[in-house]
Amino acid sequence: MLSLTLAWIFTQCIRGTVETPLQSSAGDPSIYQQSNISVAAGVQIQCDGARFGHNPDLADCRMALTRIPVARTKITFMDRTKEPPEPRPGQNIEGLPFRVMGPEARCYVQVILSDDVESGSASMGEIDHAASELVTKCAWERNSGGVATRIGGDNNLAVVLGKYEPSIRCQGTLVNKVHCPAILWDMPAGTERELFYPDTDRRRQVALPIVLRTYGGGCIMRIFTARNSDFTSWYKIWEAGIAVYYVCVRDGRGGIYSGLGESHNLYVAMSGLRPVSGTSSLDFEDGWKNSSLTGTELQKDRG
């Protein structure tokens, strides 16, 4: 099990559309073509509106930056679906995907792996610096998203600034919002296209409704459909959950994302209510309490 430093980062934030998964984008050699590239303070910046969105919300991008804590501790990032190696003394191993967003969820900053590597290392301070350069060079100067490379010294990580277009409605009060990052950190996030179906549909792949919850039901995510089956991936569901978190949950409200899936039939809701009986359920521990980053190294977000 990977340690949950990044989920702990979400809790610090509480206190204060890309059509293909970003990992695939990072693996596309075209992302490193020499057109539209600038270098600032050792970080290579490429603005690419076609891949990461045109006209991202600049105010939301700037707010997304305030969700990144400034920390000097080096973190080794890797795909969280893979078994991590035994950490060396003092090494912090954390899983991807990892994303922060502005309060409207119209702009995001995401850490990804570069081509054909299994891991990469950087501090949150280095990620914050790369994201700040992206906001200045791409969102502000060129009205587009972009990607920053040469991150962290080993050059195995990239930071993406992208546009997102959510369909979210906040509702009710969520008392135990501090528990919700545990779901977003541990939930499936695979990129495979799967069929999500209601109980009445016999084309079985992923049965709905599904409830993901922290132990004790302090926070739950419910994935459901009003009527029809639809195709999507767990990665897209994770994206929707992250957006609901930043728009609603972070402010102590429940929220629902509508219109997910290829035919827009799926919904993702987060709340503090306990699930009803008869639903598929997965439990997650509040692992952020055991963060590998403690003390003064990890500071509160700047928002």
How would you sum up this structure, described in words?
There is one protein chain. By secondary structure, the chain is α+β, with helices and mostly antiparallel strands. Helix content is 21%, strand content 30%. It has seven helices and 18 strands. The strands form four sheets. It has a six-stranded antiparallel sheet with strand order 1-2-8-9-6-5. Helix 4 runs antiparallel to helix 5 (124-140).
In brief:
With about 300 residues, the protein is α+β, with helices and mostly antiparallel strands. It contains seven helices and 18 strands.
Cα end-to-end separation: 31 Å
Q: What would the principal axes of the Cα set say about the shape?
A: globular
Q: Name the strands of the widest sheet in spatial order.
A: 1-2-8-9-6-5
Q: What pattern of helices and strands is seen along the backbone?
A: HHEEHHEEEEEHEEEHEEEEEHEEE
Number of helices: 7
Helix content: 10-25%
| Mean pLDDT figure | 79
- In terms of DSSP E residues, the strand content is 25-35%
Q: What kind of sheet is the major sheet?
A: 6 strands, antiparallel
Which segments are poorly predicted (pLDDT under 50) over 5 or more consecutive residues? 1-35, 275-303
Q: How many distinct beta strands?
A: 18
Radius of gyration, in Å, reads 18 Å
